[in-house]
Design brief:
276 residues, mainly alpha, 2 domains
Length: 276
């Protein structure tokens, strides 16, 4: 991107050539007047996305020399980092390195899920700002730990070429993130009555069945523990799909998580012993 103050001068030039005031530009692109003033004066270096919005509002093509290769490299680096996080762009060692944090993340996820249930029960009885803040923090920890936990299964799905497990892992990360972000939004908006909405029960059940069938694909490499985990996951999913028997899924949840944590721990041990 052009450096300041050259960038600010160019934007000022484009705006004055078109006879547009800063307030009129704000109406076209919804960037605050204060921000426009600071950019044009060279006081701040804006993000590439902000410059793109301003240029488009001024009828310019952002690709016409306004962005340098540095910005392209930066964007490519961000995309590469995201791909590595989701194990889309990976090496075999990166796959194996994801296993140890995964079972540790699973333990954190399991413990904080129990704490979450306890805090939610208290909150439904007596709403307080401190409890809301605590619950939001707990849910953020759960999102992160669940991501690490599921990333371990995603790693195993690639190592063992288990396509169903791979699909289910991506779906799990996406759906759980959406559910918990929804819960956090509800908490922050003080609409506690919408907490724990049942809208996600059936989708979670479907994903769990796919996930369980994917775990069964690991039997040859991971043995009986993968078979047990797969069957428990399928049973959990079926109970959720029926809705009426979803309470069975809640009973199965604790042993299911424990077995899956053990499965990842075993995979980590096999990696350390050079057998995987």
């Amino acid at each position: 991107m052009m450096k300041q103050p050259m960038l600010g001068s160019k934007l000022l030039e484009l705006r004055t050539q078109q006879g547009i005031t800063q307030h009129e530009l704000r109406e076209k692109c919804h960037v605050s007047v204060r921000t426009i003033q600071r950019i044009e004066s060279g006081a701040v270096t804006p993000r590439a996305s902000t410059v793109k919005i301003l240029l488009e509002a001024l009828g310019q093509n952002p690709a016409d020399g306004y962005f340098s290769s540095d910005v392209i490299v930066e964007n490519q680096f961000s995309i590469k980092s995201l791909k590595q996080m989701l194990l889309i762009n990976f090496t075999e060692q990166q796959l194996k390195n994801a296993i140890a944090p995964a079972w540790i993340g699973g333990i954190v996820f399991f413990l904080f899920s129990i704490i979450e249930i306890a805090v939610e029960s208290i909150l439904l009885e007596e709403v307080s700002a401190s409890l809301v803040t605590t619950l939001v923090a707990i849910k953020l920890v759960i999102i992160i730990s669940f991501f690490l936990f599921t990333r371990g299964f995603l790693s195993l799905s690639v190592l063992f070429e288990a396509q169903l497990l791979k699909i289910a892992s991506y779906l799990s990360i996406g759906v759980i993130t959406v559910i918990y972000c929804f819960d956090i939004t509800v908490l922050l908006s003080s609409k506690i009555e919408y907490l724990n909405s049942a809208f996600a029960v059936v989708p979670l059940g479907v994903i769990s069945i796919i996930f369980g069938l994917g775990l069964l694909e690991l039997q040859d490499g991971m043995g009986r523990i993968a078979k047990i985990a797969g069957r428990l996951e399928v049973a959990f999913g079926i109970s959720y799909i029926t809705l009426i028997f979803s309470f069975v899924g809640l009973v199965l949840l604790a042993p299911l998580l424990i077995v899956e944590i053990v499965l990842l721990s075993k995979a980590d041990q096999l990696i350390k012993e050079g057998q995987l």
